[in-house]
Amino acid sequence: MASLIRCPHCAARPREEFTIKGAALPRPNPGSDEDAWFAYVFERENPRGAHDEYWHHTSGCRRWLVVSRNTMTHETEMARDAADARAGRG
């Protein structure tokens, strides 16, 4: 069985319906210098463990989601659910 991602708009859907678009990092301000933009685009960390990523539900509702994915176990959950669990609210 394919791994499932719980889309808040479409319920649990196969992972193949989604496209990972990259780490959810804060963008530099529009007036930032070239070094800040270079670092944002090209100098990324490759963390082990859980981190937040932008995912696009390409074959479903076509909405953007922030998903927390563990790079070691490939477990996924909605970033808000992960944040609530870490804060003891889930």
Query: What is the arithmetic mean of pLDDT?
Result: 83
**Number of beta-strand segments:** 6
Strands in their spatial order, largest beta sheet: 3-4-5-6
Q: Tally the helices.
A: 2
Low-confidence regions: none
Structural class: alpha+beta
What percentage of amino acids are in beta strands?
A: 25-35%
State the end-to-end distance.
Answer: 27 Å
Radius of gyration: 15 Å
Describe this structure in words.
This protein is α+β, with helices and mostly antiparallel strands and 90 residues long. It has a domain at 18-25 and 48-90. Helix content is 19%, strand content 33%. It has two helices and six strands. A four-stranded antiparallel beta sheet has the order 3-4-5-6. A hairpin with a 7-residue loop joins strand 4 (50-56) and strand 5. The longest helix is centred in the middle third of the chain and has 9 residues, at 34-42. It is globular and about 40 Å long. The model has no long low-confidence stretch (mean pLDDT 83).
Key words describing this protein structure:
about 90 residues; about 20% helix; alpha+beta; 2 helices
Secondary structure elements and their pairing?
Layout: E1 4-7, E2 11-14, E3 19-23, H1 34-42, E4 50-56, E5 64-70, E6 76-78, H2 79-86
